């Protein structure tokens, strides 16, 4: 992102956690509709965002953390470096936004296919961090505990 674009963003939009700038918030239903439509991109709040990534297609399988059950609440158009993109968030019991991730069921480091949606599942960042590069049967007592 060039300096002029950064200055415009800094004046007009809100900075959120992890050095993301948030441009707009959208319902889960709205964005899943865009992703399911097969469109390559959508213009949201004046920004083009890609819709074909494996990460986003993971959420067509479900938008709830498969370990702790946290449900997605909204998508946000955000940027940290590079182009604006969509991030999915759930709200924890304290009302704080928690980013949802597209986790590799069989981790890439263990031979899992990084481009296969069948090898992806929705996890919140907390559960994804606890799972790390382990397989399901290697998790003692689950990760949501």
Number of helices: 4
The ordered string of helix (H) and strand (E) elements is: HEEHEEHEEEEH
Distance between the termini: 40 Å
Mean pLDDT metric: 87
Which percent range fits the helix content?
10-25%
Main beta sheet: 6 strands, antiparallel
Lateral arrangement of strands in the main beta sheet: 1-2-5-6-7-8
Question: What's the count of strands?
Answer: 8
What is the molecular shape?
Answer: globular
β-sheet strand percentage: 25-35%
Report the structural category: alpha+beta
Total discrete domains:
1
Low-confidence stretches: none
Radius of gyration: 16 Å
Question: Can you tell me about this structure?
Answer:
It is built from four helices and eight strands. With 145 residues, it is of the alpha+beta class. The protein has one domain (3-138). The strands form two sheets. The chain has a six-stranded antiparallel sheet. A two-stranded antiparallel sheet has the order 3-4. It is globular and about 45 Å long. The model has no long low-confidence stretch (mean pLDDT 87).
């Amino acid at each position: 992102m060039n300096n002029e674009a950064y200055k415009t963003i800094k004046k007009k939009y809100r900075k959120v956690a992890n050095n993301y700038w948030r441009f707009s918030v959208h319902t889960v239903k709205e964005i899943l509709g865009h992703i399911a439509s097969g469109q390559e991109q959508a213009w949201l709040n004046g920004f083009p965002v890609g819709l074909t990534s494996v990460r986003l297609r993971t959420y067509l399988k479900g938008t709830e953390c498969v370990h702790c059950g946290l449900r997605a609440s909204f998508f946000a158009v955000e940027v940290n470096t590079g182009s604006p993109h969509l991030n999915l968030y759930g709200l924890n019991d304290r009302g704080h936004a928690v980013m949802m991730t597209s986790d590799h069921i069989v981790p890439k480091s263990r031979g899992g296919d990084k481009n296969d949606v069948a090898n992806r599942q929705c996890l919140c960042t907390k559960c994804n961090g606890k799972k790390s590069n382990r397989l399901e049967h290697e998790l003692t007592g689950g990760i949501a505990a």
